[in-house]
Amino acid sequence: MNSFDQVSQQCRHLKLASLVQELPVLLQQAEANEMSYLQYTEALLGYEVQQRNSKRIAMNRRKAGFPVEKHLEAFDYRHQTTINKRQVNQLLDFDFIDNRDNLIFIGPPGVGKTHLSIGIGSKAIDAGYKVLFTTALSLTESLEIAELKGELKKKITTLCKNDLVIIDELGYLPMNKQGNYNLFQLINALYEYRSIILTTNKDFTAWGEFFVDENVAVPIIDRLIHHSKIFMLGGESYRLKQKT
Ligand code: ADP
Ligand code: MG
Known about the structure:
There is one protein chain. By secondary structure, the protein is of the alpha/beta class. It has two domains: about 5-65, no CATH class; about 70-244, Rossmann fold. Helices cover about 55% and strands about 10% of the residues. The protein has eleven helices and five strands. It has helices at about 5-15, 15-30, 35-65, 85-90, 95-100, 115-125, 135-150, 150-160, 175-190, 215-225, 240-244, and strands spanning about 100-105, 130-135, 165-170, 195-200, 230. Helix 1 packs antiparallel against helix 2. It is elongated and about 75 Å long. About 25% of the residues are buried. Magnesium ion (MG) binds near residues 113, 114, 168 and 169.
């Protein structure tokens, strides 16, 4: 076996799958550029690290479960004037995730709440964070299923592995008492430990309507609002604009 084959085999043995494919190119570059031993080592390891990072980000993106792709670059601030680009850009240093703060977008349908949440979540993934997107309805359903199986705690532990949990459309449908309780357990586990982006069409004053149990509603709201940046979005629905 020649040296090249031997190195290839060792790469496979060490599970350096992408490096082994790139090896001829990297070798050629090293020779062409008369790299030092250190430079070449850096090129080899750097390539593998970069490949692993991009694979991890691609996997995190698949796991996030975004219903559609939305990009902040496509957000039109001339239409949506109740939030500006600077406010959104300020969020993209992800201090809010590092500080376990929440973002709450409140506003009527079509004003861009879901678009902004997915756009911000998507950038967070690019920055290396783990994100989960879910609607309040499907979250409540999956918590209920887990609870019936006696696995609520396990489910919540899994959800808490994300750095950021996006809960879309809270308040479109009322929840039953058990649903309130399950959601409280989750919010309590995420509180000051992970970040939440919440979107809702209802003002805080109306939140009592979908939390049927007052005893649970107050502490849930309390935990969501504490350490949160609240954005009240208004204006015309973008969906209606597109029809004209
Ligand atoms: P909401 O969640 O507030 O009901 P969405 O974010 O789902 O609204 O927005 C509805 C549609 O309009 C989506 O297709 C979204 O991409 C688009 N949209 C909303 N606001 C804007 C905006 N300011 N610029 C570009 N597209 C927008
Ligand atoms: Mg929405």
